[in-house]
Amino acid sequence: MNLRESNFHTSLTIWGFTVFCSLFSVLTLGAREYSPTCIHENMRQTPYPQEYHQPYLNPAPLLVPQQMKQADFLQFALSKEKDFSGNTTVVSKPVPWCMFSPHQILSSGTWYWRFRSVSKSGENMAWSPTYSFTITDDILQFVTPSFEVVRKKIVGNSPRLYCFLEDDLKKSRSKIYTHPEYNLMITSGREGLAANYATDTLVSNHVSAMVVQCEKLHTAYTLLQRDVYADKMAQLVRWLLPSPVTDRQIENDFYAGDLAYLLACTYETCYDRFSVKEREQMEQLMERIIKFYKHRFFGGMENHIFDNHLWQFTFRRLLQTSLVLYDKSPEAREFFEYAYELWTCRAPATGFNRDGIWMNGTCYFSANAVSLYYIPSLFAYLTGADFLQHPWYREVGKAMVYSWPPLSRSVGFGDGHEQMNDKPLVIRSAFAEFLARETGDPYSAWYTSIDKRYEMDDEMRLYRMVRSESKKPIAALPADEPKAVWFRDTGEMIANSSMKDYRNNLCLSFHSSPFGSGSHTHSAQNAFNLHYRGVPVYGSTGYYMNFSDAHNLLSYRHTRAHNTLLIDGIGQPFTTRAYGNIVRAFSGEHISYALGDASNAYCGISEYPMWVANFVKQHLEQSVENGFGETPLTLYRRHIFLLHPDKIVIYDEMEAKKPVRWDWLLHSPVKFSIDEQTCKLVTRNEEKQFTSVAQLFSRQDCKITQTDRFVVPPNRENAVRGEVFTNSWHLTASFTPGKRNRILTIIQVQPDGKQAVGIQRDGNLFQCGDWTIEAELDVKKPASLYITNKTNQAVFGYGKSSLLINDKPYRPVDKTASLLFDKIDGSWQIQERMDRKPQLTGSNR
């Protein structure tokens, strides 16, 4: 597992062999000692960075809340001198947005910054208070050139939309007929040629279909240079131009982006085929769209934690449009500069994410894949810098493989988790192919060797056919491929029994995110999913059709739809305030582990206008009856393990200010067989031929119920993607009310021909095959957990002042630490870890 914290390895000889002891000096704040209102503000209220912020990257962007901009422009000053003297001081030009990138590596030490508002007439307002932050040597570095470099490259450069492919284009044309996608390209081109809107009286209603046809035609024309394709592109626009485009249509960001790109792509490709009047009409319409969205973007996008619609398509489409119009429109020039600065300050994936995983839900990575390929390719060409060296891009190949393994359903969280695809989506395959070709990423190369569906993709086909000469690495997983990966910034841990044996892989995914809930993410802090042979054993439930229907609000993104807890029937609200955090994790050969803290997640109701409006629209309240409201919860920490190869252990610690009912949730695609006396839960998957046995242990009594009904069933009239609705089974273990509770869960998943072993209990001691688990379930005593294996000698300890490693006593540095003795990175090691607090980007209060 890649570890960002500094660590040291001490070699010591113990009992005849060498043990490497890695002691991590991570902050030891407990869950209740560190509870800011939120980690990431939904809409920025706090200037960033300040002294209590730990920057994610060097250089850190300077961000100012939109409401603190008091005039037309903002001007920034940055310096190592508190009085802003000396040669380290940088003063920006006044800009109409609320961000500034230094575009240079900042030397270690304290940096000071401030800003002021400036009017169009040049009147300067007073400087803001001075803020400070610290740069340390361990902060990852990623620096981008200033926009001046971009500006010089753009001038005189033509064509522009795919300028980064021009050097290879001529070579590729000479070999195009032998390319494996040639016939698919021809077929797609014919589909574009078949489009006919000659008799349609309102062509502007068909822009979304037209842009798909345009993309196919553009690819064919660029590669083959046959006039028939370009003429058809021009015809599409000629059908469109007489059709009025309303302001209401432009307010739809997807529509506006599609329309802008349709015009920009055709304008550049077919320029000489249009009359002067037609070009003027196209220019006016493109500029109208840019002007409209400039006011929505400037100040807003850099301050919103993640405006998913605008980032998915609209941002790229408007970037492309402003690039095409750069010489002809001041509005376009300004927007293109803004877009460059926005990407360097807040992208990819929020800018506060170095994990490679998609914080807005695994499925919704696909909606961003084309932008994630196109924009760094364009900016790399315009600047000469490698934008794929950003830490997020360096990890995304691994993240794609773990969050949606080959020949499997998605194991991730968020909207679209229920996708019935038994393998990753086509566009994920296309992005992985791009990444493997451009960076040599071995995970992506392996991924696409199993799933070559990228050949079906139209949007990135031009890239693949032009860059076909570039070589991909050998399609094999790295030899040091970890059993588990901790995605620290986004708050997920994913563990596999064997990724290489992906057809029979047992995959555990665990979610506790500092980003909280909202957008395409769900109220699922401390939730887990478990997949075997590519299908869910236990997983999140419900169906995604839109943001606002009652099923979505109460039976899909609500906490009751996930494998976590309800407190007196109340879940986590839809807000970044409802955050979690994975505070510890290990990846050993025999034990994979994570500790999630969701103590702050059950914090009332959503305050976001969108969610408030959605509840009103459905005539629903965020009430206790509907599972929303304040709770007296003070502690919810979930320890979760994959004991390789086939056992899951969960140890839950819960506390509240007053007695509450603890509702422990588990969801299955098939019905549970329940033995309420022993709290044993059995499910059987006939198609994939396996059985899962889960057993709960606690000092408190519980009542176990199940239902195959949703609180609100999906409305079949809202099904627009060919959804097939099947009922899942929702199990609730309701524990006797109390201020505290501890629950131990042991899960065994076995293929046909093998049986789960019986669990032998003696007080707090549980024997499960070769594994011995000692879990303190008495809430009057400190929580502790001690796991050993008599065959492989692996050991885990938590809350123990002393434990045995190879029959010899060992004293942890701190008894509240989590300790692992296991084979890690090829050698037996002892690792100890205390809590890692999340990196704030908002207020520390």
From TrEMBL:
Record's protein name: DUF4962 domain-containing protein
Coiled-coil blocks: none
Annotated ranges, domain Heparinase II/III-like C-terminal: 483-692
Cellular compartments annotated: Cell envelope
Pfam families linked: DUF4962, Hepar_II_III_C
InterPro entries to which the protein is assigned, alphabetical: Chondroitin_lyas (IPR008929), Hepar_II_III_C (IPR012480), HepII_N (IPR032518), Ig-like_fold (IPR013783)
Organism per entry: Bacteroides zhangwenhongii
Record field: transmembrane: 12-31
Residue ranges annotated for the Heparinase II N-terminal domain, each copy included: 39-466
SUPFAM superfamilies: Chondroitin AC/alginate lyase
Alphabetic keyword roster: Membrane, Transmembrane, Transmembrane helix
Major localization class: other
